[in-house]
Structure formats: structure tokens, C-alpha cells
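hey can u check if this looks right to u? its 255 residues, i copy pasted from the old doc so theres a chance i mangled smth
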Amino acid sequence: MKIAALFLILTAGVVQALTPDEFQALDFKQNLGESLSLNLTFQDENGEKVLLKNYFQGRPVIFVLGYSSCPMLCSLVLDGLVQCLQGLSLKAGASFDVVYLSIDPKETQDRLLTMKEKYLKRYGQINSEKGWHFLRGDLASINIISREIGFSYRYDVRSKQYAHPSGIVVVTSQGKVSQYFLGINYPSPGLAMAIERSAKQKTGTAVKKLLLLCFDYNPETGRYGNVILGSIRLLGILTILSLAVLIRKSHRERL
């Protein structure tokens, strides 16, 4: 299914349901050293009211922004994160926490709970449920955190989707932004170093810009509106070429 989605990205035309100015405003600014507003109130996947600071209790936090009904990159971001975490000796709930905040103020508790169960299963580490948290909140609180992290997004009324960048952010236990990982694939050694650095309340350096914007189907035009830069296109091309080589090799072996 992911290969098919990448193929659509490569072949479909780009349609901007939002205005060009709104798209140009989308960015993932690297606000290194910025302090998050930890006294904001949200709801967790169990429907309980929680303060954000509840998740900053002595361990670094990997912060992720997205929404459950996202048709494209949000799931790829979490997939990439889980794959990266599986390569670490550090474990969620022991060395760090993962906090996912939905940018959709209409997000539901059921969807967040389903997401938590899904990614806990994929992560596959015993007793790690205390290290994964899925939150929702009101628009004002979401906007405050998004602005502090540098995550800009826009809602498209016609397609009923959010256009937004992709990536994850490592935050210190004191709530200061420490390191960014942009895109959908994250190196395990690099993330391990960032977590260890963050545990010492240190801030990393800005990473090379890689802006993957998530915006999918426009039902009014019947076309796909992904605004995704060359790196993801190249990834899709390489994936398709690799499959072609494997198919050809398999065919020759049968002969």
C-alpha cells in the first residue's frame, strides 16, 4: 500500500487547494532552546485531563505533531519513528517518553487510543505503555505548542485535511527544544545521541532543511495535492527501481 501511495505521489499532478501564500507559509522552524508551555491542559487517550508537564518528569520527550485521520505522512512519521526506536538500546518509558499531540481540535479519544494500541504493538517492547502518550486539546493550546515547536500548519476546508510538515522533535525534561529530525526516516544512532544529549539538558544544532509537506486528496478536483519535495520523490523512484530489479532477478532465477 505504501509503494502504491508513493507511486501516486510520483505520477499525480499537484493541485493547491490552499492559496500559494498559505503553502509558502508552511514550515518546520528549528526553535532550538525554545521552552514549551508545560502548564497547558490536554486530554490523554483515556479521556483524562492532564497537564503537559506531567510528561516531563526526569526524562527527555520525543514530541510528534499530527492527526489521526491524516491520509498520508502522519502514519509514515510514526512508522519511521517506531522503526528507528527498535534500533535503540534506550527504551520508551525508561530513558525517554513519546508524546503525540493531535493538531485537530476535533480529534477523538477513541482514535487516539487506537493509535496508541497500534504503535505499542509495533514497538513491541514489554512494559513500554507508560512511555507512550497520545493527546488532544483545544485549538488555542494546540496553536501555542505548535508555534513554540515551530510547526506550522493550515486546514483546507474543501478537502477537510491539514497541510503540514513532517518530522519529530526531541525535548529536554525541562521542556526545552533540543533537536529536530525532519522528514519520515530517522537514524537510530543520531536519535540515541540526541536523547542522551537532551538528558543532560543540552541543545543540539540545526539540521539540514528537509521540508516534506503533507497534503493529499482534493475531492473537488479528483486529483492528488501532495506538495512533497524531491527527496520523497527520489525515495519513491528508488523503491520502484529496487522492486523492478528484484522482480527481474527472481524471474532469471526461475529460468
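Residues 230-254 form the longest helix (25 residues).
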